[in-house]
Amino acid sequence: MFLTEHDLTELMAWRRELHRKPELSGQEEQTAAAVQALLHAAGADKVVTGLGGHGVLGIYEGETPGPTVMLRAELDGLPIQETSELAYRSSVPGKAHLCGHDGHMTILAAVARRLCRQRPKRGRAMLLFQPAEEDGSGAAAVLADAKFDEVRPDFVFSLHNLPGLPLGQVSIAEGLVNCASRGMQIVLTGRTAHASSPEFGVSPQRAIATLLNEITALGRGGALDEAFSMVTVTHARLGEPAFGISPGQAELWVTLRTLTDSTMELIRQQAEDLVQRVAASEGLQVRITYRDVFSHCLNNADAVAHLKAALDAERVRHSAQGLPMRGSEDFGRFNSRSKAAMFFLGAGEQHPSLHEPNYDFPDELIEIGATIFMRTLRNLLD
């Protein structure tokens, strides 16, 4: 145990302050400022700011040359109203840390305290506080930032808490661990008319009704194998909230989900073909855009081996339970540059699920997560 009771008390207070003041993807200015202050106080040799947006990177140099190992946490919260009665519940209406990113940041803050007291013997340790994970844009923006090229890591590790898994247990596996997904925004445009004379307009009513059924049917569902696909309608709108207007526009949002990027391309093309065919049959114009684009997340075998060695050394129970999972995660993009792997840390079998309005990160995981990360760093850099 490298954290004192005083450390844990201060770290829990820091997390709860983050929890009170969530910021959404791309807006994490104050959160980033809090992280910068923490890293400076924790003796980082260098603090890089503005990385891929509001990203912050703390660097701890070793005494001799060696590998560069980076740990990653996320800065952003969610656009959801928190419903808990916690004393430290979100003070920002409609925004909350309901995915545990406040806890993930605090785990890295705990590692920073340890690195301040004992630098790596070789190489360098880096702590990345990444922006905009929730909308899928953050990892790509960090990788595209010229400042990241200057500090390119050999290994990148991350974690995510996982409700439903026993508290403190770990799920980890090589290969595919998270699905690819993307938000498909469909806008159908015809022509409005008076509600008494709808025949003079071009209504998207029939098209939207057809798509609501047929686009979801494109998803095969079933086991999470390479053929898995799922299409989920998340939002629909037809016309304006008025009684005197036959609608001239409709909007449909769907999430496409597959285990692999290659299957995603197939389902995307099928969805686009369907939308174009239905729109043409009703004389409608169509516009399709994409948001929240996530590639599949793949764990590198060498990186997994290092994490498993750390888990065994710290006697943390682990298995491949629940993997791969349907949820998406932008961390997989780091494998394009480095050997990267993520593990999933149990938040409790009965704990509220991620993104539920009463979710809160379990403080018990701060020490467990930090201990796993520190053992991984020691194994690679000492």
From TrEMBL:
<dbReference type="InterPro" id="IPR011650">
    <property type="entry name" value="Peptidase_M20_dimer"/>
</dbReference>
<dbReference type="GO" id="GO:0016787">
    <property type="term" value="F:hydrolase activity"/>
</dbReference>
<keyword id="KW-0378">Hydrolase</keyword>
<feature type="binding site">
    <location>
        <position position="134"/>
    </location>
    <ligand>
        <name>Mn(2+)</name>
    </ligand>
</feature>
<protein>
    <submittedName>
        <fullName>Peptidase M20</fullName>
    </submittedName>
</protein>
<keyword id="KW-0464">Manganese</keyword>
<feature type="binding site">
    <location>
        <position position="101"/>
    </location>
    <ligand>
        <name>Mn(2+)</name>
    </ligand>
</feature>
<dbReference type="InterPro" id="IPR002933">
    <property type="entry name" value="Peptidase_M20"/>
</dbReference>
<dbReference type="GO" id="GO:0046872">
    <property type="term" value="F:metal ion binding"/>
</dbReference>
<feature type="binding site">
    <location>
        <position position="355"/>
    </location>
    <ligand>
        <name>Mn(2+)</name>
    </ligand>
</feature>
<dbReference type="Pfam" id="PF01546">
    <property type="entry name" value="Peptidase_M20"/>
</dbReference>
<feature type="domain" description="Peptidase M20 dimerisation">
    <location>
        <begin position="182"/>
        <end position="279"/>
    </location>
</feature>
<dbReference type="InterPro" id="IPR017439">
    <property type="entry name" value="Amidohydrolase"/>
</dbReference>
<keyword id="KW-0479">Metal-binding</keyword>
<feature type="binding site">
    <location>
        <position position="160"/>
    </location>
    <ligand>
        <name>Mn(2+)</name>
    </ligand>
</feature>
<dbReference type="Pfam" id="PF07687">
    <property type="entry name" value="M20_dimer"/>
</dbReference>
<dbReference type="InterPro" id="IPR036264">
    <property type="entry name" value="Bact_exopeptidase_dim_dom"/>
</dbReference>
<feature type="binding site">
    <location>
        <position position="99"/>
    </location>
    <ligand>
        <name>Mn(2+)</name>
    </ligand>
</feature>
